[in-house]
Amino acid sequence: MRQRYRRRHSTVRSGPRQAFTAALTTSALLLAGCSSANIPDSRTEIVMWNHAAGNPEELATISEVIDAYNASQDQYFVRQEAFPQLVYGDAITAAALTGDLPCIVDIDGPIVPNWAWAELLRPLEISQETLDQMLPSTLGEYQDETYSVGYYDVALGIHARQSVLERYEIRIPSIEEPWSGEEFDAALETIAEGGEFRYPLDLGTGIADGEWWSYAYSPFLQSFGGDQIDRDTYLTAEGALNGPEAVAFGEWFQSLFARGLVSREGNPARPEFFDGSVALSWQGSWEALKAYEEWGDDMLQLPPPDFGAGPVIGGASWQWGVSTSCENPEGAFEYLEFTLQPQYLARFSEELGVIPATQAATELTPQFSEDGQLRPAVDLSREFAMVRPQTPAYQVISSVFEKTLKDIMHGADVEAVLNRAVRDIDTNIRSNDGYGF
After folding, report:
1. Are 186 and 369 in contact (CB under 8 A)?
2. 370 phi and psi angles, rounded to 5 deg
3. What is the dihedral of CA 281, 284, 290, 292, to 10 degrees?
4. What does UniProt give as the signal peptide span (predicted)?
């Protein structure tokens, strides 16, 4: 999971396209991307946009797959335009507002329902056999239709050092026997009492804004038994976000800072686990290889704690969809299905250190295979991943949740701010006629 662009929302009643316009940060200019090769005259061009311009490994892998597809047939020619991630959100937003989206776009998974509701994406026309092989968290769905598919997922877990846990006589948890909430809390207190570390735990609170706050911390809420919205109806957050379980989560979250177990600030680059100033880090699998390089066999990837309703981590990363602006959707879907072959999914995992989207691809990726160094990430994803609420309201939910947790972190009354969050979310849902639910 990488940092996402900011979202803004409106509580004005409007239709899907108008509400989409109000929901996103707009840009007056369509920013230029990096284009790939020239198009043979005899082929139909399929244009794809992505956010990989600042990531040479990802861009090279995408280019490799495009070249393989273009060489495999003579009807279509896929041409990519790659943008730096910091401007990609503005670029696709501007294109969406003017009806100029390319055929293929990559989209952050939680945003897909909003795009589907706004009629910017087509339901996927990819064989069910292919989709059935995918990790559920790599599929973007809305109203029982699948609109996007991802090549990989990532997993959050607790990065720790075995020597530290053994020194403090703390049980090493497993997927089968994770820490209970009480055990986790006791471990943090024990480490704090030792005085060896600046803080027992790094939660990444130095990441100022964006999707991190919802992605990283809503799983704790869900493990307490609460949620960001009532998933039975998707029409209200009442009871889910302000019920007794949610209040218990909020009080626990606030106490982490009040007790000095977690910093309210921190470096967005999160060097603390690597420089030894914290004992534990709530971190993504994308940093695991770096942690192994730093700590070797002492490094552990541990499951999340169970606060009563089971361990939970967030699911879904960047995914691919076909826009309703696309004049040749059959070619776009043919390309996407081609890219879902195991050998190509495995290439992304090898280059980016991300979890393969299928079992067949996992078997082709040594670091994620049964005895691979990164295998714990696969198991965490399969056992504990919960996708963020698949509703067009999610952008509002995420923004409200972030503000709410920041207020709680700084000492606000937990029940009051949770009730405010419910009012804000429910007002937006009502203003948009329930977003189709």
Report:
1. no
2. -50, -40
3. 70
4. 1-37
184-234: pLDDT as tens digits = 999 999 999 999 999 999 999 999 777 999 999 999 999 999 999 999 999
User: Tokens 């910017």 appear where?
Assistant: 120
- Would you say 325 and 101 are in contact if contact means Cβ atoms under 8 Å apart? yes
Distance CA 421, CA 435 (A): 18
Closest to 316 in 3D by CA, of 204, 240, 214, 241? 214
Q: How far apart (Å, rounded) are the C-alpha atoms in residues 59 and 202?
A: 31
Q: Which of 318, 285, 354 is CA-nearest to residue 110?
A: 318
Both tokens of 364, joined, read 């082709």
Q: State whether the Cα torsion 237-243-249-253 is positive or negative.
A: positive
What tokens appear for 200 in the block?
């027992």
* Distance separating alpha carbons of residues 199 and 328, to the nearest angstrom: 55
The answer to whether the 44-154+317-382 and 156-312+392-432 domains have the same CATH topology is yes
Q: Token match 């189709």: residue?
A: 436
Residue holding tokens 């429910």?
A: 426
Model confidence pLDDT, tens digit, residues 164-173: 999 999 999 9
CATH number of the structural domain 156-312+392-432? 3.40.190.10
Half-sphere exposure of 392 (CA within 13 A, CB side): 30
- Separation between Cα atoms, residue 417 and residue 249, nearest integer Å: 13
**What share of the chain has pLDDT > 90, as a percent?**
88
Report domain extents, the chain. 44-154+317-382, 156-312+392-432
User: What's the one-letter identity of residue 122?
Assistant: R
**Which band of pLDDT confidence, cut at 50, 70 and 90, is reported for residue 436?**
very high
Cα 339 to Cα 230: distance, rounded to the nearest angstrom: 35
**For the residues 56-79, what does the mean pLDDT come to?**
98
Identify whether the C-beta of residue 272 lies closer than 8 Å to the C-beta of residue 198. yes
Confidence class of residue 36 from pLDDT cuts 50, 70 and 90?
A: low
pLDDT in tens, 309-357: 999 999 999 999 999 999 999 999 999 999 999 999 999 999 999 999 9
Closest among 96, 109, 26 to 391, alpha carbons compared: 109
Q: CA–CA separation, 359 vs 186, rounded Å? A: 37
Q: CA–CA distance from 421 to each of 133, 180, 238, 424 (Å)?
A: 37, 28, 9, 5
What's the chain's average pLDDT?
A: 92
- Of 414, 396, 379, 403, give the one whose Cα is nearest residue 209: 403
Neighbours of 54 (CB within 10 A): 15
